[in-house]
Amino acid sequence: MSELATAAKPAGIIAKTSRRAAVGLTMSIGVGLLMMNVWRSSPSSLFLRTVNTVRLISIDDVDYLRSDAKYTIVAWRDGGKPAEAVVRTPLKELLEQLDAEQFAQVHRSIVVNLRAISHVKRHDNETAEIHLRGRDDVLPVSRNYLHLFRQM
To answer: The CATH number of 42-149 is which of 1.10.10.10, 3.90.1300.10, 2.102.10.10, 2.40.50.1020?
Structure first.
C-alpha cells in the first residue's frame, strides 16, 4: 500500500481506498508529501510534523537545527516558549534552502539562526559555545566554523 501511495497522487489513492486504516496511512503519506512540496516552494515557513499534529512554523521563529542521523531536530519558539520537533529531512538538505544571511552552520551537525544568538563564549582550545536568547540550550561551535565569530 505505501509504495502505491507514494507513487500516485494522495487524493487518487484516498478515492480508491475503503479501509479506515489504509485511509489513515494514505493521509499520513499525503500530508508528508505535501509538507515536502510546501517546504521547497516556500522557504519562509516550515511544516513540522509531531506525534498528532502538523504545524506551520515561520523560519524567523526557528532558533536552530540539529542533525540526528537521517533526521533533523528543529528548535523554535512557540508563542515565546521553546519547542522542538523532529523532521525526516537531513540537515544538509535543509541548509541548502535557508537564507545564508540569517542562518549559519556552526558545527557539522548544527545550524543556528544568527538572530537568536544572545552571546558567544570563546574557549582556549579554539572552540566556542553559543548561548541563545530565551533558551537554556548551549550550542558548540567547532574550529572549522569559529571564523564566523572572529569579529564578535
So the answer is: 2.40.50.1020
